[in-house]
Amino acid sequence: MLRIVDVRTGRLVEIPSAHRHLLRICVHLPVIGDGIGALHLRVLLLGDVLARTAELHGLQALTVLTVPDLPREQLQALDRVMAVLGIHPPATVRAHEPSETPSAAADVHVLAHGADQQDSVGGVRIDVSQVRTAPPDEGGPGSLDADVVEADPLALRMLLLSHAYRTPVMVTGAALAEARRTLWHWRQLVADWAQEPSRPIPAGLLQRAHAALADNLDSPAVLDMLRSMESDADVPAGAKFETFAHLDRVLGLDLAREVGHQHQVTP
């Protein structure tokens, strides 16, 4: 059972309603303007995490992406950004006018916070909070343009997943560097653990992780669980490997990237 807070009521709502095995998701991209920005990435990422969580819980997810009427070059850039961020491509992409009411029938509509959409649309509404980037003189990347995203895409994904989707995020160079170091460290550990005999995922941790994701997509709690497990001497290496690999089905951080490879130098 998945439960999401409907922004219109502030209450957790079970999705999909009734006893169905298909979750219909509609991700509404705001007007892009001069280019794909941080908020666009976060809206796309949340739709991806929701679909992955549904599939982890035995549901089929069908995602429709609605975008402003964009020129071919921006649509191609959007495809590239989704690919490097590990966002699964939607089943359908539809163009819409900025003031148009969402027309796709869906169980969940994912929108940017403050999007000017009518509340009469059916299904649960999720509002994704703002993302700001610190300017270079304050230790930030200045902007999250295509070059920054493609240079370090999964560090950005991890940084965004470290915050609840309703919480504003400030992206700094230091935060991106820390996310990059954590990813490097975890991938080396996963490569080491993969050489040990496989062991079952601890039942209690698995239950807590699934419950956190099922209750309003609490990815920060899942990342905290992995941090705690990393140094837990009571958990066998094989169980750590299975746990990290299993939860990465939702996190999408490519944690098994270094399995079978020589260890790399710390970035």
Q: Could you explain how this protein is built, in words?
A:
The chain is an alpha/beta fold and 267 residues long. It has eight helices and nine strands. It has helices spanning 38-56, 72-84, 146-151, 153-161, 173-193, 203-214, 219-230, 237-251; strands at residues 2-6, 11-15, 22-28, 60-68, 92-96, 108-112, 124-128, 131-133, 169-171. Helix 6 (203-214) runs antiparallel to helix 7 (219-230) and helix 7 packs antiparallel against helix 8 (237-251). The longest helix is centred in the last third of the chain and has 21 residues, at 173-193. It is globular and about 50 Å long.
What attributes does this structure have?
267 residues, 40% helix, 8 helices, alpha/beta, 2 domains, five-stranded parallel beta sheet, Rossmann fold
What's this model, at a glance?
With 267 residues, this protein is of the alpha/beta class. The chain is built from 8 helices and 9 strands. It folds into 2 domains: 2-128, HUPs (Rossmann fold, 3-Layer(aba) Sandwich); 135-267.
Give the helices and strands as they follow along the chain: EEEHEHEEEEHHEHHHH
What structural class is derived from the secondary structure elements?
alpha/beta
| Largest sheet data | 5 strands, parallel
Which sequence of strands runs across the widest sheet? 5-4-3-6-7
Task: Report the average pLDDT across residues.
Answer: 86
How many DSSP helices?
A: 8
| DSSP, total strands | 9
- Per DSSP, what share of the residues sits in E-state strands of 2 or more residues? 15-25%
Domain count: the total is 2
Q: Ends: how far apart?
A: 40 Å
Question: What portion of residues is helical?
Answer: 40-55%
The low-pLDDT segments are none
Shape: globular
Rg on CA atoms, Å? 19 Å
